[in-house]
Amino acid sequence: MDGSQRVLNRSGGSLNADIMFVGEAPGRLGADSSGIPFHGDKSGHNFEELLDFAQIDRSKIFVTNSVLCNPKDETGNNSTPTKQEIQNCASNLADQIKILNPRIVVTLGAVALESTKYINQHNLVLRESVRTANDWFNRLLIPLYHPGQRAMLHRSFANQRSDYQFVFEQLKKINKPLKKTNSIGSIKYDILAIIKEILLNQSSIDYFKLHKLFYLIEYNYYKLHNTRLTNAYIVRQKDGPYCTDLHFQKLKKALPELQIRQINGNLIFNYTIDIFTTNDTHIEGEVGNIIKETIKKYGNMSNSEIKTKVYLTDPMKAFLRLEKNEKVNLYNVPIQFNLT
């Protein structure tokens, strides 16, 4: 695994999480590339979609793997971790559980379930114990199937949706529900509706600028209301804010009419409404005004200009101060809008 990235960083999520999800290992096209557990490949897209369906906020959970590096076969493709590799990394998983102290540990797949046996012995078998809550290591252990495509042969996506709803119900039962947001109600503004509004107001936009405009809309809303507009999971990367919900493959699936071109290594998006598409995406009121004003102010800037504007916002300036004072690297850290 010497050529693989060690995927353990703050992009895993909240350090006060009540739920820890444990996968198998970082995927070659997913976390081994993005540095974000369960993000960037098909397994990651499925995982994020299942969380959304069960209304589990990714910013309030922690995601890791039984093996922290991507095991590759002789051709460079994903390989299942060996028993020795699982044993070698078991102490790392045990340390994460002890430090974060989640109320619930959810294993995703047989490998992840096997890895927990090296921390505290149990006799659970995935096919027999799926979607059950079991006392383990002073917390609950819930075995689920892996969200990858191969696992769908054994556990349909519909069944997996029910599995994630079960996880959410168990969380409510232990009298420590997911932390409530300051927004009115439990459901925040729809991320896709905001993305559509951005795309409709920009005849053409590249992937870089789309992430920055979305962040600035969130930031401008937060300044007015002291609460988030959406539940989008946004992390700080070298070039500024990156929103996991805006992965281009997820956007293409959600918006089939979206046209994506690649020019000089940049992804360019075009989204148009024609007579065969119902335009039900227009956002009115205060949110619509914030979106339009943000686009008007920043939409015509170059990528370097909008990057500068983003880094002058309070959360990003706070990152820079922390990095300078504490001499730490804060890439892939989730962005907290109340961090000033």
UniProtKB/TrEMBL annotation:
Task: List, alphabetically, the SMART domains matched.
Answer: UDG, UreE_C
Q: Which keywords accompany this UniProt record?
A: 4Fe-4S, DNA damage, DNA repair, Hydrolase, Iron, Iron-sulfur, Metal-binding
Q: Does the keyword Translocase apply?
A: no
Per UniProt, residues of the Uracil-DNA glycosylase-like domain are: 10-172
Q: Which InterPro entries match?
A: SocA_Panacea, UDG_Type-4/5, Uracil-DNA_glycosylase-like, Uracil-DNA_glycosylase-like_sf
Name the source's superkingdom.
Bacteria
Q: What is this protein called?
A: Uracil-DNA glycosylase family protein
Tell me the organism.
Flectobacillus longus
